[in-house]
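My hope is that you will study the record closing this message with an eye to the fold:
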Amino acid sequence: MKDFVVTVLGSLVLVCAVAQWIASRTKSQLVASLNPEFQKFQRIFFAPYLLALFSDWLQGPYVYRLYSQYGYAPKEIALLYIVGFAASSTVGTFTGPLADMFGRRRLCLAFCFIYTFCCLTKMSPNFWWLFTGRLFGGVATSILFSTFEAWYVCEHTERNVFPADWISSTFSISTFWNGILAILSGVVADFGADWLNFGPVAPFMTAIPFLVASAILISLTWPENHGSRQFGLGRSFVEGLRTIFNDPAIFLLGLVQSMFESIMYIFVFLWTPILDSTQSADAWPLGLVFSCFMVCIMIGSSMNTLLLNRNIRPSTILLLSVACSAISMITCAWSTNMQHRLPVISFLAFLLLEISVGMYFPAIGYLRSQVIPESQRASINNVFRVPLNVITCTVLYCLHKNDDSGGNHASGGDQNAFLFNVVLSLVGFAAAMAFSKRYEEKSKTSDDEKNEPLI
């Protein structure tokens, strides 16, 4: 399998290089890149944000192995994972109102300190220390994937008043570099854990300097901005919910996000056992497989830029990414049948899913910036994450509840999980179609109003 994966990886890298070269020369990218003030602003945002993302990626590959080395059974490890997702969907939900009221810059700084504490808890084999680390890790993750974006959009549109179309450029670049950092993080994590024999705790200790550097840059270069400061914590959350349910466009976009990202998180727990389940002596090189996934995300990011350059709306790109995820999950549900497992077909379907992820994140980031009110941006972004965390916790529990009797992977539980993902993808596709229709009608109305002659 190694030769096959190496060939696929080489082909993907070549496609990625060509796609990125073409994407970098599109009209929108060239116009944005020629503005020195915008470039400076992007650097101010990217430096601490990418450091924060890198610290997060560093910890991913060795979490399970660390818990296993400390002697915990799969059920106990699953419980620790569930704690993180549950914390993100409960306590983490209130980080949005906190950011809107007390300052997004302050919450981003809080992320650096909270995540540093989480890394330090990994040094102890005590279950309750690890439990506490996962609890705070869930809160930190909520901040990372909502407050940083809210700070950027506010600075882009309110303080600097750059064109709204340039937001897509920033999110596309961010997604591309996120793939680069993910690949690099795997190399750095392996270097500390295996090559230097520091063990699986090494990546967590390596992440701390990057978190400190991110905090320093935020404190020195980021101005403060706020959302609504008129509501209390509970009332702010309730107002966010009211806004979501009163605006069909926001509700539909949140539904798409919850469905798509649930699929993505569930996939994280499935791909390794699916490929490892083959009885062939020629095992899959999981590190190279992971690299293939990250290159596909970068290809998807470049495709997003190319599609935008052809005047395809972000809402249509979002619909396309959800459609690709549905095709991927339907293929996986078929290829993981216990009677005829086809890991190569599953692997190719995984690559399609990762390409859809690369298209999805720039599109959803831009669309959130257009439909979510500035005063409630961080709050609503966190509310969107509640359903996906609940869904992921439920599926993770179901996958591991029979571990004592051979595991769900041995009894077809992985195929059931993919079938569930098919349902999620179809719901997401229907929501994306409805959102796209509403968004395009709204955009057309807005364009007509702008072109209306003044009397």
Remarks:
- Confidence is low (pLDDT under 50) at residues 405-411.
- Residues 46 and 174 are 8 Å apart (CA to CA).
- The two ends are 70 Å apart (CA to CA).
- The longest helix spans residues 413-451.
